[in-house]
Amino acid sequence: MTCKVIKITNIDRIEEIIEKAPICRLGLVDDDEPYIIPVCFGYERGALYFHGNSKGRKAELIKKNNKVCFEMDIDVKLEKSEDPCDWVMKGKSVVGIGRATILEDDQEKRHALRLIMWHYSEGNFNFLESALISVLVVRIDISSITGKEIV
Hints:
By secondary structure, the protein is α+β, with helices and mostly antiparallel strands. The chain has one domain (5-150): Pnp Oxidase, Chain A. It contains four helices and eight strands. It has helices spanning 11-20, 57-64, 106-120, 129-134; strands at residues 5-8, 24-30, 33-39, 41-44, 47-53, 67-79, 88-102, 135-150. Strands 1, 2, 3, 4, 5, 6, 7 and 8 form an eight-stranded antiparallel beta sheet that branches. A hairpin with a 2-residue loop joins β2 (24-30) and β3. It is globular and about 55 Å long.
C-alpha cells in the first residue's frame, strides 16, 4: 500500500484541522522526563488556551519550565493490507511548540475560557468569580506550528 505525506504550512489549512480537533495533547518536561496529557482547548491565531486544576502537575511543570509542545489530529483511519508492514495510519495532524503563561488577570481568563467553550459549543458563557479564582487558565504563545496529511 502506498501513501502520500503532505506537509501543511498554510495557516488557514492548519486552522481547519485545529477547529475540528476534539482534543489537544500537551507535552511538558518534568526535569529530564517528558510528560504528555490530553486537554480541552481553545484557539485564536497565534495562541492556544487550556484550563485545569491550579494545584495539579500541569501547573507545577509549567511554573518550572514553560516550554511546551502540542499535537492534535483528525480524520484518523487505519488502512490495513495483507502485509502488516504496509499498514498505514491516514489522517491530518498539527504539531507546534510555544511558551505557556499562567493567566492571572480575570479578563484574560474569561476570554480564554470563552474560547475553550466556543471550541465545543455555541453561545455566551458567564463564569463565576469563585471559579475564576480557583481555575488554572493557560495561554500558549505559539512560536512554530506545522501540519501534516497522510493520504
